[in-house]
Amino acid sequence: MRPTGPQTRCNLRASLALGVLVAAPAAALAAPVTFNVEVPHCTPPGATVLLRSNRLVVGETTHDPLTQLERTRWSGTLEVAVPLAELRYKYAHQVCDASRCTGIEKDLFFDGSGYDIADRTLAAGQTSTSDLVYIWRDAMTTFDAGGASLGPRPAADRVAFCGPYLSLADEDGTVAIGYHAYDAAPVTLRWGRSAALELGTLDGDGSHRPHFFLSDLTPGATYHYQLSEGGVPGPTYTFRAPPAPGAETRFAFLGDIQFDHQVGNRPEQQALAALVADFAPDLLVSPGDLVNSYPGTSGFIPPELGRWNVLFGVVAELVARAPLMVAMGNHEEDADFFWEAFVFPVSDPPSQDHYAFRFGSLLFVVLYTGATEGYDVQGMLDSQTPWLAATLAGAAADPTLRYRLVVLHRGPFSQGANHPDDGYAFLDGGTATRPSWRSLFEQHGVDLVLAGHNHNLTLAENDGVYYLTSCAGAPHHDLRTPWLPTTLYAEATCAAALFTFDGRRLSLALQRPDGSAIPEAARTFCQTAADCLGLAHGCPETVSWECTNKICGADCDRRAQLQVTPLALRFTAAAAGEDPPAQGLTLGSSDGEPLDWQASCAGDFLRCDTLAGATPATLTVAVATTGRAGTLNGTVTLTALNPPGQPIIVPVTLTIAPPPDPPGPPDPPSEPGCTCRATTPSLVGLLLLLGLRRRR
Fold this sequence. Notes:
Blueprint: H1 5-23, E1 31-38, E2 50-53, E3 62-65, E4 67-68, E5 73-80, E6 89-92, E7 105-106, E8 131-132, E9 135-136, E10 141-143, E11 149-152, E12 165-168, E13 175-178, E14 187-192, E15 200-203, E16 211-214, E17 222-229, E18 232-240, E19 249-253, H2 266-279, E20 283-286, E21 294-296, E22 299-301, H3 305-319, E23 324-326, H4 335-341, E24 355-359, E25 362-366, H5 377-396, E26 403-410, H6 424-427, H7 437-443, E27 448-452, E28 457-462, E29 465-469, E30 487-491, E31 496-501, E32 506-511, E33 523-525, E34 543-548, E35 551-556, E36 562-565, E37 569-574, E38 583-589, E39 596-602, E40 606-608, E41 612-614, E42 617-623, E43 630-640, E44 648-657, H8 683-695
Parallel strand pairs: 1-8, 19-20, 20-23, 25-26, 26-27, 27-29, 37-44
Antiparallel strand pairs: 1-5, 2-3, 2-6, 4-5, 7-9, 10-11, 12-13, 13-16, 14-15, 14-17, 17-18, 19-31, 21-22, 24-25, 28-29, 28-30, 31-32, 32-33, 34-35, 36-38, 38-42, 39-41, 39-43, 40-42, 43-44
Helix pairs in contact: 2-3
């Protein structure tokens, strides 16, 4: 809402007062102060942020409009005539008086009544500010036209994510785009494969929190989209659709963010978010505790909406470009808002608190480990374990899934000193009739468990399963001593955990908030030694790679290794169309000397021109197109014979598109004497034609 009459009167009074100050000897006391403030994304569209202060006269209030620098950042340099020690100020998005102020800022704990924020002040000599508005009063309260309160906003009308945010809505890769509208103005989405947004427009459902669902996306393709609220278009964003099996992808793991105003950990959250943004992941994964709750007189108090505002201010640019998939943490006790704001797959209906999804060749299994107090461990194990066992068993039988990851909040094997044993109740909670999660992880080949809850960095390994505990800006926990036998590396820091899958191996890199790398915890996960070929190493000559306990390791010696490029083949064709061209695999040896090899092709649609030979060589692979659309998967396996080596498995994918649409009407007949088809004239042709006409 734009300021009206009262704004004009206040500005006039400010101008008159400023004129008096300029003319009076006391003007020498005036000092310029630059007020910088970050406001929530959920600020009424079109509103102007105002500084509400007594900067001119103690006891009188002036409203000064600030200048918008970015979506949520405002600034203004103003003369402060009162002594700095007596300056009092707040922020608002409407001019207001002492009795009715609908657009005033409120304290973090504001839940619809009370919790006025304390007057802001300046320290002696301070000439600029860096302020943060948690929430506006009218984000939680409704008013009549005269500004009188009508009571709290209904729960469904409360908003915190006033910007686009992505998630995966099902196991088939449907992308959900959510958006919160401050005033429930109509929200529409335009999208396409290009900036032209040519695929159409979708209308919201008229609620404050609409979702838009984009399905049947081309794997790995880049899509553009733009949201409009009340007819006003916002920025255009892009995202990549979930990848096909075997395709390269990258994802980031952000542990507990958990804004805590008493610790002031927001700069660290912002630093880690910036590192993730530079990494440009296709997917974001979180173990929960996106926000914080705190003890009350009768248990823990759910996180207020202001905390969700602050969270969105940190992650808005990330979640607009990559789906965010979350395991509910113990501090997301505002369950109604959490599950209404986010859309995740419902893999085990009707349960929402645990689910699974596939992302290319990666499987993510998301589990729930309870609230802060009074949670029922046995009940949660009863409700999730049968589904978990079936999901992991199915994944173990799928050859296109190379790595299996579990995401949960309370995890085991953390080196942290705070509540270090919480995760074991879930890991080892088996009974005579119900297997433990530990046994299921080990039986079905889970590679990595991603956890939070303990605010430190720990990489651990136990019986072939790796456990990564991390945080992304939450207050740090001290480490306990001595190190556990399972601990590979630990540090009392939060970190950005950045994963890259290149079609065969999964690499983990970590960075501290200052951007420095943590090489001691970096790992490259593998299934065979062939997955490790091509990695950087410190060997002076030839390197032999080993895949030991799922981790790549270099052995510096002179043993020759079979080298194959590329490490994956992808064919595309149309149903009932011609077979696509054959492709070749280039075979060589690490030392350049001849190396005997043999090959096998698995897949009815695959043909290899030879099954044995010596390097250097090219193995030609052809595919036969079937009559129906779909995706066929096969493999080519190559093995060195002398010296013997680990087999190299090359995945082969044939994607068959539906037949093309029937041909359109025939071209119009050509003019007499012309044998050319009618085409769109080129610029050169038009110029030549004009020249001929002028000569005539």
